[in-house]
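Worked example 2:
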Amino acid sequence: MHVYICRTDYFRAPDEYAFMFISKADHSGCFRIAQAGYEEFLEYDSFISCGNLVFYSREYLTDAGIKHKGTIKKEHLVALRNHLIDHDVMENWQIKLACNALSAAV
């Protein structure tokens, strides 16, 4: 499962749509998101991976037939942005891309 971040044409991005991966494992620097309040798409407490953004093309997303499962609450988007600001595992350009997109979403 993924969190959609934004569409970008930034020259370092390998494809135009940026996402963050949701995992059940807590890797270094991940952002915890509790299942409570997100039962429609989370089966357990989960973690948004902050190691790197993942990028997909429009063609890949269309072919994959992805479906919107739910929306992360604004207060958690703000907390995720603040977590990324204090984070140093992800590359700086990805942190800026994600933080700008998250700021615009709230």
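The longest strand covers residues 17-23. The chain has one domain: 2-105.
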